[in-house]
Structures are given as structure tokens and as C-alpha cells.
């Protein structure tokens, strides 16, 4: 695409940046809501797993530190 056509296209299809970001935010919220409904349990389970691993690691470290 050459410069003039490109510029013309931009002129014709210029969007209000605020409006665009508004639509983007709405889309993002929709996605997040869908993900939350599907993923809450998964995230909770994952967080629990991480917590357990951290506890084990901490316990192991403290055990190895004690003379």
C-alpha cells in the first residue's frame, strides 16, 4: 500500500482513541468475567498448591538451618 492510499485510509477510518480504548476495556472486562467464572477454582487450587510448596520449602530450609 503506498503512502497516499495509506493516509487516505487512516483519514477515512480514524477512530476516537477514547472510544477505541472504551471498547477495548469492555472487551477486556468481558474476557476477564468469563475467565473468572471458569478459572476461579483453578486459580484457587493453584494458589493453594503454591502456598503448600512455599510452606514445605520454608520448613525444609528451617530444618536444615537448625544445627
Describe the structure.
This is J domain-containing protein. The structure is a single chain. With 67 residues, this protein is mainly α. It has a domain of 28 residues. The chain contains 2 helices and no strands. The longest helix has 49 residues. The radius of gyration is 25 Å and the shape is elongated. The N and C termini lie far apart (73 Å).
How far is it from the N-terminal to the C-terminal residue, by CA? 73 Å
Shape: elongated
Strand content: under 5%
Assign the structural class, choosing from mainly alpha, mainly beta, alpha/beta, alpha+beta, or little secondary structure: mainly alpha
What is the helical fraction, as a range of percent? over 70%
Poorly predicted sequence stretches spanning 5 or more consecutive residues: none
Query: Main β-sheet: number of strands, strand sense, barrel status?
Result: none
What oligomeric arrangement do these chains adopt?
A: single chain
Provide keyphrases for this structure.
mainly alpha
Provide a short characterization of the protein structure.
The chain is an all-alpha fold and 67 residues long.
List the topology elements.
Layout: H1 3-12, H2 17-65
Amino acid at each position: 500500500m503506498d503512502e497516499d492510499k495509506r493516509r487516505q485510509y487512516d483519514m477515512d477510518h480514524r477512530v476516537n482513541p477514547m472510544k477505541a480504548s472504551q471498547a477495548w476495556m469492555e472487551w477486556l472486562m468481558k474476557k476477564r468475567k468469563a475467565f473468572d467464572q471458569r478459572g476461579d477454582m483453578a486459580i484457587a487450587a493453584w494458589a493453594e498448591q503454591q502456598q503448600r510448596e512455599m510452606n514445605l520449602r520454608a520448613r525444609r530450609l528451617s530444618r536444615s538451618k537448625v544445627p
